[in-house]
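dumping this here before i forget
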Amino acid sequence: MPDIQHTFGSDLAVGPTGDLALSAGAQLGLERVLRRLLTNAGGYIWQLGYGAGLPQAIGRVANPERIKAVIRAQMLQEGAVARSPAPSVSVSGDAGGSVYAYVRYADADTGETQSLTVPVEMS
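structure:
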């Protein structure tokens, strides 16, 4: 069943008929993964284990192994992510001091490979 299209940090989108746009399939899964990674841990009082809390890493010394472990653990809890092949996560920084997580996973419903880049720390 489709949900209202809403990418974390963005406005709601308008569909071709002027109604709210809907998400389904791989797009819906991508939205759910982003929400999970960008929601602060403990931010949902009804589901305290939900959220990787990547925004909480801003301003802290980057620990790539910890960041990868948190992302992997949260990805495996997300129903939109296939368990096989396992999601792959890499973390790297750029010359300006910004740190990014690069995530690849297979969508559980469609099997399509999805890729996303998530900012973890901005200097």
